[in-house]
């Protein structure tokens, strides 16, 4: 069993529990990697080979539009990471995943993951439930981006994840909520929760 099995189990089971045999199989094939800050994990156009579990550090997925980086999502300790749509569909990624800080991650290959998913029905169920939960959160965020004011977006971000203010550079948080970095600084000084 992997030395980080407790972290993996807690995060895995936070979406949906799997049976004990599936748990023992899925806990085994993960490998640990260390990546320096500002390093790509997945480039746009590449097919995602791994699903990650973050042990230390912060990462972000982003794309470039009109020579401007647009941040889509962050991952940080004890969350799953990777370009999940590219990983599950084995299609080229539309965006890039990079480390913001020095990072330690566990990773499992697409081959190992899909082999285990085909072997264990409970892992297939886990994937369905996890993807559905991510979809629900993504749709909530789309609603916020489409209809909320800058102040409402900022407030929603801080209610959902207050720790990000100390973990993630503000220019990336501004990009994430779709505001100019200058306006983000103004929101930081004026909005009270």
Shape: globular
Strand order of the largest sheet: 1-8-3-6
What is the CA–CA distance across the termini? 43 Å
Low-confidence stretches: none
Assign the CATH class of the domain at 5-120: Mainly Beta
* Class per helix and strand makeup: alpha+beta
Mean pLDDT: 94
Number of helices: 9
CATH-derived topology of the domain at 5-120: Jelly Rolls
Number of beta strands: 8
Write down the oligomeric state: single chain
CATH architecture of the domain at 5-120: Sandwich
**CATH homologous superfamily designation of the domain at 5-120:** Jelly Rolls
Radius of gyration: 17 Å
Helical coverage, percent range = 40-55%
For the largest beta-sheet, the strand count, sense and barrel status come to: 4 strands, antiparallel
Strand portion: 15-25%
Question: What are the secondary-structure elements, in order, as H or E?
Answer: HHEEEEEEHEEHHHHHH
Which SSEs are present, and which pair or pack?
Elements: H1 5-15, H2 20-26, E1 31-35, E2 40-42, E3 50-56, E4 59-65, E5 68-75, E6 80-81, H3 84-89, E7 96-99, E8 103-109, H4 110-119, H5 121-147, H6 150-160, H7 164-167, H8 170-177, H9 181-190
Helix pairs in contact: 4-5, 8-9
Describe this structure in words.
The protein has 193 residues and is an alpha+beta fold. The protein has a domain at 5-120: Jelly Rolls (Sandwich), CATH 2.60.120.10. It is built from 9 helices and 8 strands. It has helices at residues 5-15, 20-26, 84-89, 110-119, 121-147, 150-160, 164-167, 170-177, 181-190; strands spanning 31-35, 40-42, 50-56, 59-65, 68-75, 80-81, 96-99, 103-109. Strands 1-8-3-6 form a 4-stranded antiparallel sheet. A 4-stranded antiparallel sheet has the order 2-7-4-5. Strand 4 (59-65) and strand 5 form a beta hairpin. The longest helix is centred in the C-terminal third of the chain and has 27 residues, at 121-147. It is globular, with a radius of gyration of 17 Å.
